[in-house]
Amino acid sequence: VQLQASGGGLVQAGGSLRLSCVASGRTFSSYTMGWFRQAPGKEREFVATITWSDTTYYADSVKGRFTISRDNTKNTVYLQMNSLKPEDTAVYSCAAPPRLMETTSQGSYDSWGQGTEITVSS
Fold first, then answer.
1. Which of 51, 69, 82, 115 could be joined to 91 by an S-S link, Cβ 3.0–4.6 Å?
2. Distance CA 32, CA 36 (A)
3. pLDDT tier at 57 (50, 70, 90 boundaries)?
4. Could you give phi then psi for residue 107, rounded to 5 degrees?
């Protein structure tokens, strides 16, 4: 599956942004979709996942502020980010593991979109 992310930008602390990731192919509904981020000078980390069966998982650092959702009719996964903090500044990437796999393990994700950059100013 090929992935194309968009929606990044510059936002003030406390603000909101919504990222979108469009996937190619006709079997999108059978893929778990995840968002990961990499801050400057840091390792890439897990942010959120929505499984093909619509179960969601979040990193503790974003729980209660970020919401992942999907629209299978549009082959799109979203990440709604509210109450943004300067520490959310990073390049955000969407990714998918092999079809029908449900996982939050970054190493299992084998399809990656290009990143979209988010900068949160204080």
1. 115
2. 13
3. very high
4. -65, -15
- Rounded to whole angstroms, the maximal C-alpha distance in the chain is 42
Residue 91: name the closest of 8, 1, 4 by CA. Answer: 8
Q: In Å, what is the CA distance from 105 to each residue of 34, 46, 78, 121?
A: 10, 8, 19, 30
Please report, as a single letter, which amino acid is at residue 63.
K
Average of per-residue pLDDT across 14-28: 94
Query: What's the N-to-C CA distance of the chain in angstroms?
Result: 37
Whole-number Cα distances in Å, 22 to 34, 90, 95, 111:
12, 20, 11, 12
Location of structure tokens 């092999």: 98
Q: Can you read off the two tokens belonging to residue 114?
A: 């290009």
How many other CB atoms are there within 10 angstroms of residue 34's CB atom?
28
List of residues 6+ apart from 61 with CB closer than 8 A: 87
